[in-house]
Specification:
Elements: E1 10-15, H1 19-31, E2 38-42, H2 48-59, E3 64-68, H3 74-82, E4 89-92, H4 97-105, H5 111-124
Parallel strand pairs: 1-2, 1-3, 3-4
Length: about 130
């Protein structure tokens, strides 16, 4: 890596049950993202220590965002502990598919810029449908 290259941000999606596998599968099919760009972790059958160890290992040494389904619970707790080093990792709660898709296309951004971007994309994607009346 040259001095000008910035390491790509890795993503870890930690959820209750099998939700993470479906969301990561959808991202890979839609975006064609490399397998290591976003990895799924389920809390199923994992105690707190094992879940933390798994998230920590998959986040790796470079910049990473740990996405979770909820702001509370075992997934969020493991994510917060895995982000003890605020320089290299961030947690994003309430993950949705649009934010994950945006994430894989903008992993070259700085960690703070990318977190801000995926939060905005995720919020923008939550809408209701209303028929327009003539």
């Amino acid at each position: 890596m040259s001095e000008r290259e910035v390491p790509l941000v890795r993503g870890v999606l930690v959820t209750h049950g099998s939700m993470c596998f479906g969301m990561v599968d959808a991202v890979r099919k839609i975006a064609g993202a490399p397998a290591d760009a976003l990895v799924p972790v389920s809390n199923e059958a994992k105690g707190p220590d094992e879940l933390l160890r798994t998230v920590d290992e998959l986040a790796g040494p470079g910049p990473a965002i740990i996405f979770t389904d909820l702001q509370t619970g075992s997934c969020a707790l493991a994510a917060r502990f895995a982000c003890r080093d605020p320089d290299g990792r961030r947690v994003v709660y309430g993950t949705n598919l649009p934010m994950l898709l945006d994430f894989v296309f903008h992993r070259h951004l700085s960690l703070d810029a990318l977190v801000q971007r995926v939060l905005e994309r995720g919020r923008e994607a939550v809408r209701s449908f209303q028929l327009e009346t003539p």
